[in-house]
UniProtKB/TrEMBL annotation:
InterPro entries: GTP_Pyrophosphokinase, NT_sf, RelA_SpoT. This is RelA/SpoT domain protein. Residues 52-175 form the RelA/SpoT domain. GO terms for biological process: guanosine tetraphosphate biosynthetic process. Gene3D superfamilies: Beta Polymerase, domain 2 (3.30.460.10), Nucleotidyltransferase (1.10.287.860). SUPFAM superfamilies: Nucleotidyltransferase (SSF81301). SMART domains: RelA_SpoT (SM00954). Pathway: Purine metabolism; ppGpp biosynthesis; ppGpp from GTP: step 1/2.
Length: 212
């Protein structure tokens, strides 16, 4: 039915996906600008890397089923807020909150939703700061507001989440090992959070904040 919707509305659907691509470009540029400014003012970059993606059709379909979303363009746009995704990987945990503040201060960004899985990790051990924002994109004759999900992580959080995400899709794990693996992964997440804290502590001692 979803594929049918796409086929019937090929042009409008491609256009919608194009809006998401454009919104990603806007948001990615904002972070690149903040990174550039920061590296001039201080002698380091708070952003290690930025990854972006538009959600795959397969993933959109999965969410439609999970949340029982009606199969119309409007409903998809309204209910799936993470079709455009920007992941900002930072060196230190402090950098995440500093970047979040500078980003949300910008007067064209509207915060829709905020989930702090760093202060409140998920039961799996997952850590990351998630924001859903609306960003305007300027088209030939109109201005359109587009939802973008921004995920902020440290390198350690991203390392854990990337591996855990890949392992999640492995279906041939013996039932007897599932609980053990969940506990192991949780423990790894805790250990990597401690590593983040220690690295941040080292940075604070060095005083690597100001360009002196
Ligand atoms: P993908 O393939 O990354 O796009 P919702 O997004 O509304 O369905 P919820 O609970 O509101 O559900 O979203 P949440 O948990 O705030 O964020 C979902 C996204 O966060 C996931 O995207 C993952 O990218 C990431 N995430 C959340 N929990 C975990 C976890 O335990 N492990 C890992 N590795 N990633 C996690 P999607 O859409 O599930 O998939």
């Amino acid at each position: 039915e979803f594929l049918d919707l796409i086929q019937r509305n090929k042009k409008p659907f491609d256009l919608l996906m194009c809006y998401y691509e454009c919104a990603i470009m806007e948001v990615e540029t904002k972070f690149k600008v903040l990174n550039q400014e920061h590296s001039l003012e201080y002698d380091r970059n708070p952003i290690e890397s930025i990854k972006t993606r538009v959600k795959s059709y397969e993933s959109i379909l999965k969410k439609i089923r999970k949340k029982d979303i009606p199969i119309t363009m409007e409903a998809i746009e309204e209910n799936i807020k993470d079709i455009a995704g920007v992941r900002v990987i930072c060196s230190f945990q402090d950098d995440i909150y500093a970047l979040e503040e500078s980003f949300l201060k910008q007067d064209d960004i509207e915060l829709i939703e905020r989930k702090d899985y760093i202060k409140n990790p998920k039961p799996s051990g997952y850590r990351s700061l998630h924001l859903i924002v609306q960003v305007p994109i300027f088209l030939q004759n109109t201005k359109k507001f587009v939802n973008v999900e921004v995920q902020f992580r440290t390198i350690a959080m991203d390392f854990w989440a990337s591996l855990e995400h890949k392992m999640r899709y492995k279906k041939d794990i013996p039932e007897s090992q599932v609980k053990f693996l969940q506990e192991e992964l949780y423990d790894c997440a805790e250990q990597s959070a401690k590593l983040d804290e220690r690295m941040q502590g080292i940075r604070d001692v060095i005083g690597w904040n100001k360009n002196e």
